[in-house]
Amino acid sequence: MLLMQRTKPLPAGKMDTLRTLSVCLVFLLPLLSSAQNDACELSASPAGCVCSGPNVVCTGYWPTYRELHSGDIDSKLESLTITNTTKTNLIKCESVFGTLTNLRKLDLSNNQINFTRPRSFSSICFPNLEQLVLDDNALRLSAHTTFKSLDRLRELHLNNALYRNQSVSEQVTHTFIKSSMPSLEEIMLNDNLLGDLSSSTFNFNLSSGSSPLSRIHLRNSRLGMINTNLFEVETLPNLSFIDLSMNSITGLPIENLESFDKFSSALTINLTGNPLTCNCNLKDFVVWLQSNDTEVTVVDQEKLNCSMDSIVHGGKRIIDLDPMELKCGHIQNTDMDEQMKTSYILLIAVLSIIGLLALVILFMRRKEIIKLCNQMKQATKETFDTHHTSYVYSDITQARRETPEHSAVDV
C-alpha cells in the first residue's frame, strides 16, 4: 500500500515525450541496423572509391593493383564496380586485378575500354565470378580467349559494349566458340550492330556439348533474319527466353518455327518492334501464331502489327489476319496485284469524270460551237474560192502568152 501510494502518475507532458521517444526508437533501430550492415567490411578501401559491406564502387577512378591487394580486399571483396574512367585497354587480368578469390560481381560499364588481350577475364583472377558487366564500352574482341574458363560465370552483360564495325558478328561468334563458360545462364547483347548471326554463335566450347544458357537478349541489334540453326534444342536445351525485339526482322520461315517448337520447356519469344511484312512470306508465321498446337509464348502477340510496307494489310494486327488472304503466286506478289487493281480503278474513274465534264461543257456551249464551226467553214470556203480563181486566171494569162497570134500582135 505504501508503495502504491508513493507511485505517482507522470504528468501529461512527460508521457507525450516518452511516447515520442518510443516511436523514434521503433523507426531508428532498423536504420541503425541497416547502417551497421552497410558499414565497410574490408580493412582497407582504394582511394577515390566507396566501400559498403563487402562491396567497392569506384566512379571516375581506376584502382591500382596494389590498392586491390591491400589489407584483406583480395580475399573478402565480393563486388567491384569501376565506371566512368578513361581506361582504354585491358591486358592480362593478373597484371590489372590479380587474384580476387571471393569476387562474385565485376562491373566495368561505361568506360572507354576498346581493346582486350587473351585472358583479360579468366578464372585465374576470378575463380568465383558469377556476374560480369561490360555495358557501354567499345570492345574489339580481337582475342578469342577474352573470356577464358570463367567456370562459375552465370551472367554476361555486353549491352552496347561492342565496337561498331562490319565484322562484329564474326568477332562475337569466334569469341564465344573459344570461350568456356559452362555455368552461363544469361547473356545480354542488346543495342549492338550484330547483323545476322552465325548458326554456331552460341555453341560454346563445352566438354558436355550442351549449355545451361536459358536467356538470350538481342534487342535492337539489327538482326534481319534468324539463322535456322541459331537456336537449337541440342545445344541450348534449357533455353526459355529470347528477346528479338526492335530489330529488322520481316518474317520467320517455317524452319525457324519448327526449331522453336522442339523445345520441350516453355519458351518465350519477344518479337515486338519488328517490321513484319504481311505478304505471302508471312503465311506460315500467321498460321503458327494462331495455332493452339505450339507451346511457345509470343510476348504481346496482340500488339504485333503489319509493317506499312504491306499496302493491303499495313497497320493491321497480325493475330487477326486470315492466312488465306496471304496467297502467293508463282512470281507475283499479292500486295502488288491489289495495288495495281486499285490504280486501274482510280484511273478509269478519273478519265470517266473528265469525259463527262467535257460532254457537259460541249452541250452547254453548243450554239457558240456551231456558230464558230460555220464561221470557220465560210472562211475556208472563201479562201478556197479566191485561191481557185487566182489559179485559173494565171493559167489563162500564161496560155495567151504562149499562142503565135498573141506573139505577132505584141511585135
UniProtKB/TrEMBL annotation:
Keyword set, alphabetical order: Leucine-rich repeat, Membrane, Repeat, Signal, Transmembrane, Transmembrane helix
UniProt superkingdom: Eukaryota
Record has Cytoplasm as a keyword: no
Residues of the LRRCT domain: 274-329
Signal sequence, renumbered to the chain: 1-35
Record SUPFAM superfamilies: L domain-like (SSF52058)
GO annotation terms (biological process): negative regulation of canonical Wnt signaling pathway
Regions crossing the membrane: 344-364
GO CC, any one term: plasma membrane
InterPro entries noted in UniProt: Cys-rich_flank_reg_C, Leu-rich_rpt, Leu-rich_rpt_typical-subtyp, LRR_dom_sf, Wnt_signaling_inhibitor
Name of this protein: LRRCT domain-containing protein
Annotated source species: Strongylocentrotus purpuratus
Taxonomic lineage from the root: Eukaryota, Metazoa, Echinodermata, Eleutherozoa, Echinozoa
